[in-house]
Protein-L-isoaspartate O-methyltransferase
Amino acid sequence: MSLAERKMQFLYALRSKGVTDKRVLTAMETIDRGPFVRGVFANRAYEDMPLPIACGQTISQPSIVGLMTQALNVQPRNKVLEIGTGSGYQAAILSQLARRVYTVDRHRRLVREAEDIFAQMGIGNIITFTADGSRGLEDHAPFDRILLTAAAEDAPGPLLAQLRVGGIMVLPVGQSDTVQTLIKVTRSETGFDYEELRGVRFVPLLEGLGDEE
Ligand code: SAH
């Protein structure tokens, strides 16, 4: 199959799995997943599969990236926080939809590699941080949207506190590696509304910085 055909099939897979928001589809058509997948799995970048990346982490399945982005309902003037930069793919998608994206990973190596790809792609509205993202980024709060791409047992308190009133947070929660639920939290004047979206499987949200290899 030619590259063009593989990219067509990639977009078809997204639509057939429920990614229907036009802005999200356009962003995923614009941002090539290829550069975010390195090494032996590079030739599988256009399959709707999670794939291994450095530091024992994974780049999420494209249809899940699409569904999470869609649930986040990002608006053009939004300031978005992503916890779990990983390959940088999700942040790059968000960069097409938001005014500015703050992305945090506990592995410095992943952050550096993602920065290189953002620069190559000419993306200028992503700000990267190597830190424990479960504490959020207090200096840059509040955020209109917050997305976690690693699973916590519950929505971390500091992140709830850094969500603007009217804001949306999407995250996988669960007590084990195998059973997790994607939830959408909306902050109102008086509190937080929770909605369960679907079952998912993500790597765990861990405390502190990652070991450097
Ligand atoms: N969004 C990524 C996939 C992320 S995989 C992509 O598009 O490729 C989950 C990531 O969360 C991993 O890179 C892991 O290092 C990171 N992570 C786990 N716990 C974290 C924490 N407390 N703070 C920041 N990043 C964390």
